[in-house]
Design brief:
Blueprint: H1 3-17, E1 22-31, E2 34-43, E3 53-60, H2 68-82, E4 86-91, E5 99-103, E6 109-112, H3 114-122, H4 145-167, E7 175-178, E8 184-185, H5 191-196, E9 201-204, H6 205-211, E10 213-214
Parallel strand pairs: 3-4, 8-10
Antiparallel strand pairs: 1-2, 2-3, 4-5, 5-6, 7-9
The structure holds zinc ion.
Zinc ion (ZN) binds next to loops.
Length: 227
């Protein structure tokens, strides 16, 4: 028996039982960096899109070529990744050998019988991802006030830190002063220069340092003070 025969049996069962939904085969599923292919998917039919998945079937030939636990884990990982509520592990074409399960969310799956599976799908409603409590019931989506305040301040802090880094001005380049004939460089307010009323020429500290000596009176430094 080939797996495709089992897939066909599941597909026929889905179409027959749940005509309100659509059926697709070999659906790619992504979770994290990995991916997989769901054999048969029962999903909403919204024009050309698949809409929410209602049920995923993992099809295996009879007898099961791999461990049953491994096949179930595969099915459950597909259901988790797609937030799909119902699953079937179909082993062979005889539906008496199929196992049905319900995704109770947060990695909790319940084995259910075929009647509950069919009743559940008849009454299925889309549930947005992340909107479920551990028991599968919708939860209130608002977070407690202190979490919202902490988040607000956290965001404000990061934004202000980022803008500080972006807008922080470069420190001013220190400027010192020389005279026409002197051999030393001075600050703008140097008493020696002010008293004599000599003409001053501005120069960047780096340049002055190479060709002149610092004045012993005003003691110019590589700081804004020397401006
Ligand atoms: Zn001086």
């Amino acid at each position: 028996m080939r797996e495709a025969v089992v897939e066909q049996a599941v597909k026929t069962y889905f179409i027959d039982k749940f005509p309100q939904f659509s059926v697709s085969q070999q659906c790619e599923i992504y979770f994290g960096t990995k991916g997989g292919i769901a054999d048969v998917v029962l999903h909403q039919s919204i024009k050309d899109e698949k809409g929410y998945f209602v049920a995923i079937a993992e099809c295996k030939k009879w007898p099961l070529p791999i461990l049953r636990g491994r096949a179930k884990a595969q099915l459950k990982s597909y259901m988790s990744a797609t937030n799909t509520r119902y699953g079937v592990l179909a082993v062979g074409t005889d539906s008496r050998n199929w196992e049905f399960c319900e995704n109770k969310y947060n990695n909790w799956f319940a084995e259910i019988n075929r009647e509950d599976f069919e009743w559940g799908i008849e009454n299925w409603k889309p549930v947005p991802a992340g909107a479920l409590n551990i028991d599968g019931q919708p939860k209130h989506r608002t977070s407690p006030w202190w979490k919202r305040i902490a988040l607000t301040f956290g965001v404000l802090f990061i934004v202000s830190l980022a803008s500080l880094l972006l807008l922080w001005p470069d420190p001013p380049e220190p400027i010192v002063y020389i005279t026409r004939t002197g051999k030393k460089y001075h600050t703008y307010t140097c008493e020696f220069l002010v008293e004599r009323g000599v003409e001053k020429f501005a120069m960047y500290f780096d340049e002055a340092e190479k060709n002149y000596d610092p004045c012993g009176i005003c003691d110019p430094h590589r700081t804004a003070k020397s401006r």
